[in-house]
Amino acid sequence: MSSTQTVTSSSVEVNTRPAQLTAAQVLEEFPDVVPLGNESGSTTRPSSSSDQDSQQLFEGHDEEQIKLMDEVCIALDWADKPIGSASKKTCHIMPNIHKGLLHRAFSVFLFNDENKLLLQQRADEKITFPSMWTNTCCSHPLAIPTELGHDLPSSVEGVKRAAQRKLDQELGIVKDDIPLDKFKFLTRIHYVAPSSGAWGEHEIDYILFIRSNPKLAVNPNEVKDTCWVSPDELKEMFKDQSLLFTPWFKLICESYLFHWWNSIDDAEKFQDDEIHRML
After folding, report:
1. CATH fit for domain 23-34+61-277, picks 3.90.79.10, 3.30.565.10, 3.40.47.10, 1.20.1250.20
2. pLDDT digits over 192-238, tens only?
3. What share of the chain in percent tops pLDDT 90?
4. Rounded to whole angstroms, how far apart are CA atoms 12 and 122?
5. Which positions are annotated as active-site residues?
6. Where is the Nudix hydrolase domain (predicted)?
């Protein structure tokens, strides 16, 4: 794809390429990024949502979602090498994104035995991309030993553990229904997308497939609605102008998903070590 490509997802438009920074430049530009080796081991950094700027950013937002903005994400260079940890808030502010701050993410696509894909509609309470339809689960591994990873194999294992954690937290899917060895890693995409106000995304996103028939216990603070769809049903949803979709989901669908969908049980053949730049 061209680096100047514009990607439209309902009201979301992407046309700004962030700066490409070295690890040293990231640590110099963003004092909130804690270098690797200096982490406290905590999954959160509470100070990130307590200053005056944060109070303005979070005005009117849900308290539970504000707390989640203290989670520590993995700050990266463009080669997907971890540099350090930074709060979710720090990683998702558009001024930081424009300056080049990049973090790691994952997107899970969960299919049932009928080859239908589980979609979720993000809760209205979400700070970024509220009320939008998306794939089964989209989130971030934390900058903790079990989810961090320093090369591709260990990073894949880390995002699988993070996927288990978030599928439980968002959809109530228990680990027995989504064992680590059943997740299939396909590839990574690098994209940027503004959300509303000061918020947005700039991620290297790990794509995970899994087949399961889980019981759901939806967390309404995270998920507004769910549905199982066939490829044709998803295409019909895209035609409905009243529905909004997350930009990463639209990117993956337009570039890859419908091709992959025909070979769910043989998805390993699509696996690669590339980082596909969709900027």
Report:
1. 3.90.79.10
2. 998 877 899 999 999 999 999 999 999 999 999 999 999 999 999 99
3. 79
4. 15
5. 138, 203
6. 101-251
